[in-house]
Design brief:
15 strands; single chain; Rossmann fold; about 375 residues; six-stranded mixed beta sheet; 2 domains; alpha/beta; 11 helices
């Protein structure tokens, strides 16, 4: 069905279609609209789920972990400091192999207090064992949420998935949305190690040095296996519903001399910058990273690279730029831009390309 929706309402609609048995929720700007909409679905009977209004984000994730461990499909949503408040439980969710799906509406961290978009909240959780996908349109927010359940619950993965969308610039923007009849695209949830009172066993027990590392390796093994599961899921989604996705969305990059790399809505803005640069004779292209964990394999050989990071790791640099340095031979020009919702236009991005210097880091709007 073709309609219109905000990014938040698209996520809620997709979560409803996935038929979770438990939704645990605590409000935080700019995410609140997601859990409000899910509460409405439960209230009007269109979603048969237990809606648990908890006292904190930490409790929201704890409730999801408990329900998932009992073999129930679960969903929650958060943002910024709410995500940080969940930090301990994010490690728990991955370590306990509970395939929770969560939407994170990317928002800057305080102080100073700011409710606009930034990716540092999600990137600060990059070592928790969660898969992370970043979306750039209302349609993609819907589609990625649907696929997240199938990926997380695949027996080769059994890891939680975080769907990231930019605060306000996507969460509250209205765009066209085509919903689908999910059918059996998302299979019935089965967790092989679910709690069974007829066959009791220990969970989260003390684990000694002789075995602990095996649990860590098992998470990494599943993270590696997720690449194949993601590819299979996206291919099946394209076959059924006609929309094609991959770990990276490339735009006019086949013959590009310089490639812009960005995530989320800035990745879409970069496409307009590419057209502008092409009109001026600059052979530019773009790569919008969709998956951050597992980090995609990028072919950047023989091309200059301009990376736009809407984040920063103090004393280290832009997270994406440094990740590219670590996984490829590229020495990108690193631009820190868009922090706290700072406006970045396609003209700005085109200027980043024109003024690029390989290996140099610059902060948009800051002079040394």
């Amino acid at each position: 069905m073709l309609t219109t929706a905000t990014g938040n309402k698209a996520v809620a609609a997709a979560a409803k279609e996935a038929r979770p048995g438990v939704v645990a929720a605590y409000p935080i700007t700019p995410q609140t609209e997601i859990v409000e909409q899910l509460a409405n679905y439960v209230a009007d009977g269109s979603l048969d789920a237990d809606y648990i209004p908890v006292e904190s984000e930490h409790s929201a994730m704890a409730a999801c972990i408990g329900a998932s461990a009992a073999g129930v499909r679960t969903f929650t949503a958060t943002s910024s400091h709410g995500l940080l408040y969940m930090h301990e439980m994010l490690h728990w969710a991955a370590g306990a192999r509970t395939p929770v799906v969560m939407a994170n509406v990317n928002r800057a961290l305080g102080p100073g207090w700011n409710t606009w978009a930034e990716h540092t909240d999600a990137f600060s959780q990059r070592d928790t064992g969660w898969l992370q996908v970043f979306v750039s349109t209302v349609q993609e927010a819907y589609d990625a949420t649907l696929m997240a359940f199938r990926i997380a619950e695949d027996e080769r993965v059994i890891l939680p998935v975080m769907v990231n969308l930019d605060g306000f610039s996507l969460s509250h923007i209205t765009q066209s949305l085509e919903t689908v009849e999910v059918g059996d695209f998302i299979p019935q949830f089965h967790l092989s190690h679910a709690i069974d009172t007829e066959h009791p066993r220990g969970y989260g027990t003390m684990t000694g040095p002789d075995i602990y590392y095996r649990f860590r390796w098992d998470i990494e093994r599943s993270m590696r296996a997720s690449r194949e599961v993601i590819a299979e899921t996206e291919a099946e989604f394209a076959r059924r519903f006609g929309r094609v996705y991959g770990p990276v969305e490339e735009y006019r990059s086949e013959d590009a001399d310089v490639v812009i790399v960005a995530l989320g809505t800035l990745g879409k803005e970069a496409e307009v910058a590419v057209d502008s640069l092409r009109d001026d004779g600059v052979k530019a292209g773009s790569m919008r990273l969709r998956w951050f964990r597992p980090f995609p394999r990028l072919d950047l050989s023989g091309r200059e690279v301009v990376v736009i990071d809407r984040d920063y790791s103090f004393g280290f640099g832009g997270v994406i730029a440094q990740s590219i340095r670590a996984t490829t031979r590229a020495e990108p020009c690193s631009v820190i831009a868009g922090l706290g919702g700072q406006e970045v236009t396609y003209d700005d991005i085109a200027r980043f390309v024109r003024e690029r210097e390989a290996g140099k880091e610059t902060w948009f709007g800051v002079s040394d």
